[in-house]
């Protein structure tokens, strides 16, 4: 029986990915196909590459229209491409009223305006198949000069860089969804600041800088958090990785809220944080800093072992488990 969150990688591989690869249809214009940890597929349209990705918003009930646009476009940015438009499927539970749909669409339009993309259409319905509003999106993008960056492009000896902070999206979600509970555990100004972290969800600017610097792998840190994203980069690349825990940036708002919620910020959904592998990572960090984007070198790509190094121990990194967001506990 499955736990809440992503399907375990070994099951995803056997039931979903392997049968897809065994399908007899292999079009010549498909240049990047599904792979565990790889968020996009790519179609060669001769003049340019068309980049596609899809994701639902299931871990939040508020701001889901805005989140759907930002998180889906981040997959396109992580491929080094430019999002062009998005399709939205909105599923509302019974007894939803117009205000619920309006809030979703207001957020989606705000996100689309910020990113300069169009909402191309989609589907909207009320159904007894859901108990809370669900938004699923499919985003369409185009490559820049036919260049694509893969999740699986890491090379031995490269630096591992992360932008912004661990648990970014999860912190904003918890601060919004559990505000009434948090107010008795965390200072109000911390809650307000944490809610404002959703303004940092886009990875568009760091994508451009990283591609120009020569990044070979980029990955938006979604479910499973920083550790999950790092593992997926290593897995996709067939490499090992060494991550230095003390180098991972975590905002104080995240520390306080995660302590109150009894969860690990390193395994908390972190959309807005990009994992990048490249040569001379410190130079990339400095380039990003010049644009006001915080970043840090947090590790190295290695040949085999995948490990988190702290002051006292070396912990083996395993495949991502259910996101910490699903284990919030204020009891």
Topology:
Elements: H1 9-22, E1 30-32, E2 41-44, E3 49-57, H2 64-78, E4 82-92, H3 98-115, E5 118-126, E6 134-142, E7 159-163, H4 168-177, H5 179-182, H6 188-195, H7 204-213, E8 217-220, H8 225-237, E9 240-244, H9 252-261, E10 274-278, H10 281-290, E11 295-302, E12 306-309, E13 314-316
Parallel strand pairs: 4-5, 9-12
Antiparallel strand pairs: 1-2, 2-3, 3-6, 4-6, 7-10, 7-11, 8-10, 9-11, 12-13
Helix pairs in contact: 2-3, 4-6, 4-9, 6-9
What does this structure look like?
This protein is an alpha+beta fold. The protein folds into two domains: 114 residues, PurM-like, N-terminal domain (60s Ribosomal Protein L30, Chain: A), CATH 3.30.1330; 169 residues, Phosphoribosyl-aminoimidazole Synthetase, Chain A, domain 2. The protein is 34% helix and 24% strand. It has a seven-stranded mixed β-sheet, sandwiched between helices. A six-stranded mixed β-sheet has the order 1-2-3-6-4-5, with helices on one face. α3 links the parallel β4 and β5. α2 runs parallel beside α3. The two termini are 26 Å apart. The relative contact order is 0.17. The mean pLDDT is 93.
Keywords:
34% helix, 331 residues, six-stranded mixed sheet, Phosphoribosyl-aminoimidazole Synthetase, Chain A, domain 2, alpha+beta, 60s Ribosomal Protein L30, Chain: A, seven-stranded mixed sheet, single chain, 2 domains
How many domain regions? 2
CATH class of the largest domain: Alpha Beta
- Tell me the CATH superfamily of the largest domain: PurM-like C-terminal domain
Number of helices: 10
Sequence of strands across the biggest β-sheet: 8-10-7-11-9-12-13
Name the CATH architecture of the largest domain. Answer: Alpha-Beta Complex
What is the typical, i.e. mean, pLDDT? 93
Q: How much of the polypeptide forms β-strand, as a percent range?
A: 15-25%
Number of strands: 13
Order of secondary-structure elements: HEEEHEHEEEHHHHEHEHEHEEE
Pick out the low-confidence regions: none
How many angstroms does the end-to-end distance come to? 26 Å
Specify the structural class. alpha+beta
Proportion of residues in helical segments: 25-40%
Rg calc = 19 Å
CATH T-level fold name of the largest domain: Phosphoribosyl-aminoimidazole Synthetase, Chain A, domain 2
**Global morphology:** globular
Largest sheet: 7 strands, mixed
